[in-house]
Amino acid sequence: MAALAAAPQGTTDSAWAPLAHYLEQSVARRAFPGAVVAVGRRDTVLYLHAFGHLTYGGTGGPRDGGTGGPGDGGTGVPRDGGTERVTERTVYDIASLTKVVGLTTAVMLLVEERRIALDAPVTRYVPDFTAGGDSITVRMLLTHESGLPAWKPFFQTARSREDVFAAVLREPLERQPHTQMVYSDLGAIILTRMVENVTGGRIDRFLERRLFRPLGMRETRYRPPKSWVPRIAPTEMDTTWRHRLVRGEVHDENAAAMGGISGHAGLFSTAPDLVRFAQMMLRDATPGDSPAGARSGQPARGMPPRLLDAALLKMWTRAQDHAFSSRALGWDTPSEGSSAGTKLGARAYGHTGFTGTSMWIDPAQDLFIVLLTNRVHPTRENRQILDVRRAVADLAAEIAGGP
After folding, report:
1. What is the spatial distance between Cα 303 and Cα 54, in angstroms, rounded to a whole number?
2. What is the distance between the alpha carbons of residues 99 and 191, in angstroms, rounded to a whole number?
3. In what order do the strands lie in the sheet with 34-41?
4. H/E segment holding residue 24
5. How far apart are CA 168 and CA 153, in angstroms?
6. CA 247, CA 240: separation in Å to the nearest integer?
7. Are the C-beta atoms of 96 and 352 separated by less than 8 Å?
8. What is the pLDDT of residues 217-266, one digit of tens each?
């Protein structure tokens, strides 16, 4: 697999000093122990840098975020006084970015193949989902307007993945469909069941075969192996359920009760892998942007292959009804006070993850912004990330300029 493209001539780290300084300061004020940020275009990485440490105790700052070297014990993870530094290849629990990188893409692929219809009732694919009869469509689950609750603590009683599915499928609606947008993990879990019923296998296997392997996303997966743990950013010190530091296993409790594999949470990834995903999303939205044959696995040198239909992708990432909500299909779009900041265009789309992650993609500016942190370490009560996401998006967009 080819290395990621370097910054283009004329773009230097000094140009990105305001963003670097802001993230250094964010580490210093304990918004999170460390972070990785990636900014780029469909064929170029403009800025990719690591800051801080995996846990508190280090000095933070970009000089602590190298990619290994003398004194790292051969692990690729530098150490400073026993505190592990974040590197560009640090693995993060990306939380609800799972919904868009994994689940939404899986549904999109199946819609393109006409194995799923957006406006068909969910019961066509998940007969056990009876709460709304045939009134709830696949589209409603993707735009979070099904009437399902936002969240329920199924992990407290479930003993298996099937227990969680069964509990979600019998959960009654809280409101009539298409009357209010309520971001719902339950809807994503039902979509997971739908993907698995249609494909005849678990969602992780489908994504590995159809998305991660074709894009060369070798460090994106559910249930990371133990060998990855030294470079996985720990999340929360769980004092109520697991009673231990959560590291190398999914932070989300319901996903954990599902064996770590769900469409609503569970993926672990790195900034370079998410760069490959974002670049694919930008290029696939432009017909003819890749040479002939790219869609069948012959991309331009070093670039991921085409996977998605351009017209479908544009429709999928557009707000479905601005008068109703900012939600696209699976994705969100910029709105007042959102993590998109103020400088991304109306056609931008993105998502956040509870652990402190975010991704925004702006086709008009040919720009993506990926931010990975473990802001929930050691406790989820730390909410400084809300301001950080907006500031990072604004700084990145301003420094990157136009396409």
Report:
1. 30
2. 10
3. 44-52, 34-41, 367-373, 357-362, 349-353
4. helix 17-28
5. 10
6. 16
7. yes
8. 999 999 999 999 999 999 999 999 999 999 999 999 999 999 999 999 99
Phi, psi of 93, deg, nearest 5: -75, 110
Residues making up the chain, counted from first to last: 403
12 bridge partner residues: none
Collapsed DSSP state (helix, strand, coil) of residue 105: helix
Q: Any idea which residue has 């460090």 for tokens?
A: 219
| CB count in 10 Å sphere of residue 22 | 16
User: Residue 153: is it exposed, middle or buried by C-beta count within 10 angstroms (0-12/13-18/19+)?
Assistant: exposed
3-state secondary structure 294-325: HHHCCCCCCCCCCCCCHHHHHHHCCCCCCCCC
- C-alpha dihedral sign at 24, 27, 31, 32: positive
DSSP strand E in 299-395: where? 349-353, 357-362, 367-373
Tokens at 148, concatenated:
């399902």
Q: At what angle do helices 17-28 and 385-400 cross, to 10 degrees?
A: 170
Read off the DSSP letter of residue 275.
H
The per-residue DSSP string of 185-238 comes to HHHHHHHHHHHHHHHTS-HHHHHIIIIIHHHT-TT-EES--GGGGGGBPP--EE
- Written as one letter, the residue type at 367 is L
Question: Minimum mean pLDDT among 30-39, 163-172, 300-309, 376-385: which range?
Answer: 300-309
* Alpha-carbon dihedral sign for residues 56, 58, 62, 64: negative
Closest CA to 287 of 312, 318, 319, 304: 312
Per DSSP, the three-state class of 137 is: strand
| Residue environment code for 244-283, b if the CB has 16+ CB neighbours within 10 A, otherwise e | eebbbbbbbbbbbbbbbbbbbbbbbbbbbbbbbbbbbbbb
Q: Which two tokens stand for residue 36?
A: 């990785």
Residue 152 has pLDDT above 90, yes or no: yes
Spell out the domains of the chain, with CATH numbers in brackets: 13-89+270-400 (3.40.710), 99-205 (no CATH)
Contacts 24+ apart (CB under 8 A), 133-136: 135/177, 136/177
Question: Hey, what are 288's tokens?
Answer: 């003819």
Residue ranges with strand state E in 24-149: 34-41, 44-52, 79-80, 83-84, 92-93
